[in-house]
Automatic annotation (TrEMBL):
InterPro entries: SmpB, SsrA-bd_prot, SsrA-bd_prot_CS. GO terms for biological process: trans-translation; trans-translation-dependent protein tagging. GO terms for cellular component: cytosol. The keyword RNA-binding applies. It is found in: Cytoplasm. It comes from Mycolicibacterium chlorophenolicum. Keywords: Cytoplasm, RNA-binding. This is SsrA-binding protein. Its main location: cytoplasm. Required for rescue of stalled ribosomes mediated by trans-translation. Binds to transfer-messenger RNA (tmRNA), required for stable association of tmRNA with ribosomes. tmRNA and SmpB together mimic tRNA shape, replacing the anticodon stem-loop with SmpB. tmRNA is encoded by the ssrA gene; the 2 termini fold to resemble tRNA(Ala) and it encodes a 'tag peptide', a short internal open reading frame. During trans-translation Ala-aminoacylated tmRNA acts like a tRNA, entering the A-site of stalled ribosomes, displacing the stalled mRNA.
Length: 165
């Protein structure tokens, strides 16, 4: 059920968690959508909007993709059947997609980073990115470029309003 995401998600997706630091620390090359194998109490906790992708990453082990270090807190109405908050969770993707990800991560010094966790049609999905880590100077260049673009749009707004300096 995995598919390549084309940048624009449906408006009916309910986003549970996003990894805001991922786009700062990594250069995103490709994005994929994958299902997540979860327990019932994990889904109930996600429906309450509780999850953290801050330290999460994905690995490929024996032809399967695993999401590691994703924090889903215990369901507060759960009993002794509650889940472990940071357990490894299996991602559901087609075999050919897994094989291409294995080849790209092995050859190109790339990593798999989760960008967001959301509901689509009642099912929990994760947006997974094939990414390359940024160096410190790349991060500084991105910040400088973003500041320059912000300043240009601010100046254009001033000129439109007739407040030239």
């Amino acid at each position: 059920m995995a598919k390549k995401v084309k940048g624009v998600k449906d408006s009916n997706n309910q986003v549970v968690a996003t990894n805001r630091k991922a786009r700062h620390n990594f250069a995103i090359l490709e994005t994929f959508e994958a299902g997540v194998a979860l327990m019932g109490t994990e889904v109930k906790s996600l429906r309450e909007g509780q999850a953290s992708l801050a330290d999460a990453f994905a690995t490929v082990d024996d032809g399967e993709i695993w999401l590691r270090n994703l924090h889903i807190p215990e369901y507060h109405h759960g009993t002794w059947t509650n889940h472990a908050p940071r357990r490894n969770r299996k991602l559901l993707m087609h075999r050919r997609e897994i094989d291409t990800l294995v080849g790209k991560t092995r050859d190109g010094n790339l990593t798999l980073v989760p960008l967001s966790l959301y509901f689509t049609g009642g099912k929990v999905k994760v947006e997974l990115a094939l990414a390359r880590g940024k160096q410190a100077h790349d991060k500084r260049q991105d910040l400088a470029r973003r500041d320059a673009e912000r300043e240009v749009t601010r100046e254009l707004g001033r000129r439109v309003k007739g407040m030239t300096s």
